[in-house]
């Protein structure tokens, strides 16, 4: 039955702009990330962390349409190492790790992005199928839906190779509900925070305010990429007026308001 759902291949994915390809690869890897530990409960923490770092770095790059030069190769190698280690323990875990490795390679080089994204999608589908046949159809269906959404939106909105694509673009991972028995993503332990406050000067005109916001957002994006590369989970901007409302680091900042960046 799953064969009726045609997975997007490299030729199709080439029709996406660059960062849409990367975002698609990251989405595929993120979808099956919980299967890694589910299939290999004894996985060493370093491998679990390597997979999360690879996916998060890929999402960050797609969100800011910029490669984390100097970090992507190491992240890809670490995720591939996790896949190689998992291959001796569980096929599903190995495929989930491979999805992460292919995702970060999609971000690393534009010429490789389409094929790497296709491999990430196929690895995700294979990971699900190896766990149980019941996971194959919903995984393939929503991988296909993610791709179709990207393609339709990019054409309608005339995206370019510079258009950023955040993970929030896709919406819920499982719009129809999580498949029965699908493992939940690992809950974060109590996080520690590093806070950086930036107060924009009052009285700026619109042009100056826009430029200040752009520079602050770029600063946090760079800091976020470095944080991910060093083992963190990324930086987010928090409106001081509403500290519970987390928004990604690429989002515009409120005009002339202090903001707090929190890394975790």
Architecture overview:
- The chain is an alpha+beta fold.
- The chain has eight helices and four strands.
- A hairpin with a 6-residue loop joins β2 (235-239) and β3.
- It has helices spanning 10-13, 18-39, 45-64, 72-87, 91-108, 113-131, 136-156, 206-229; strands at residues 194-198, 235-239, 246-247, 259-263.
- The chain has a four-stranded antiparallel beta sheet with strand order 1-4-2-3, with helices on one face.
- Mean pLDDT is 81; it is low at 188-193 and 240-264.
List the helices and strands and how they pair.
Blueprint (H helix, E strand, L loop, with lengths): L9 H4 L4 H22 L5 H20 L7 H16 L3 H18 L4 H19 L4 H21 L37 E5 L7 H24 L5 E5 L6 E2 L11 E5 L1
Antiparallel strand pairs: 1-4, 2-3, 2-4
Overall 3D shape: globular
- Fraction of residues in β-strands: 5-15%
The count of DSSP E runs of length 2 or more, i.e. the number of strands, is 4
Rg, rounded, reads 19 Å
The overall average pLDDT, rounded, is 81
Approximately how much helix is present in the residues? Answer: 40-55%
Record the strand order, biggest sheet: 1-4-2-3
Q: Major sheet, described briefly?
A: 4 strands, antiparallel
Q: SSE order, as H and E?
A: HHHHHHHEHEEE
Low-confidence stretches: 188-193, 240-264
Q: What class, by secondary structure content?
A: alpha+beta
Distance from first to last alpha carbon = 42 Å
Number of helices: 8
